[in-house]
Amino acid sequence: MLSQLKEGEFNPYYSTYISKAEYPNIVQGLEKSQKEFVDFVNSIPDEKFTYAYAEEKWTIAEVLLHLIDTERIFAYRALCFARNDSTPLAGFDQDAYVPNSNANNYSKEDVIMDYEAVRRSSISLFKGFTDDMLLRVGEASGSPMSARAAGYILAGHQKHHFEVIKERYL
Question: For 27-80, how does the pLDDT look when each residue is reduced to its tens digit (9 = 90+)?
Fold first, then answer.
């Protein structure tokens, strides 16, 4: 939630995702969006699961695995920041991850199972953070980020990609 965050808690690049986070409470937002993910994946027609709307674009399965990979990375970032680890964290190249994800060989059930495991872990992680921990700021991809900004990015990033899938793929 952009209104909750202060300057210096995130790179403005993430504003799009943070603005899509619907709940001021990160854990509630992650819990609600977990059910939305499962319902959304189950609603995708089987014949569209490995569909890409244009050449060189990701398939729906690849987008979904991208969400899972990103959640793993941002949860780790939140953990580092909340624990006051001052080690600058490198960025990651999503365009290198996706073709190496094997996503198009996953079933919808595999994607849901993987996602639910990751999301349960993220929810547990954020439940354990105190208000002070959520405010702690570290460095990722050469920019500041707070633990709470990472949490809002997770929920908003998922919503962003669901909108893209609905608009361009389905």
Answer: 999 999 999 999 999 999 999 999 999 999 999 999 999 999 999 999 999 999
69 token code pair:
């990979």
| C-beta separation of 162 from 29 below 8 A | no
pLDDT digits (tens, 9 = 90+) for 78-126: 999 999 999 999 999 999 999 999 999 999 999 999 999 999 999 999 9
pLDDT-derived band of residue 7, with 50, 70 and 90 as boundaries? confident
Residue of 55, 170, 50, 21 whose CA lies nearest to 111: 50
Q: Which two tokens stand for residue 163?
A: 């909108």
3-state helix/strand/coil string of 67-108: HHHHHHHHHHHHHHHHCCCCCCECCCCHHHHHHHCCHHHCCH
Which residue is it, tokens 């001052």? 86
**88 beta partners:** none
12 CB burial (10 A radius; 0-12, 13-18, 19+): exposed
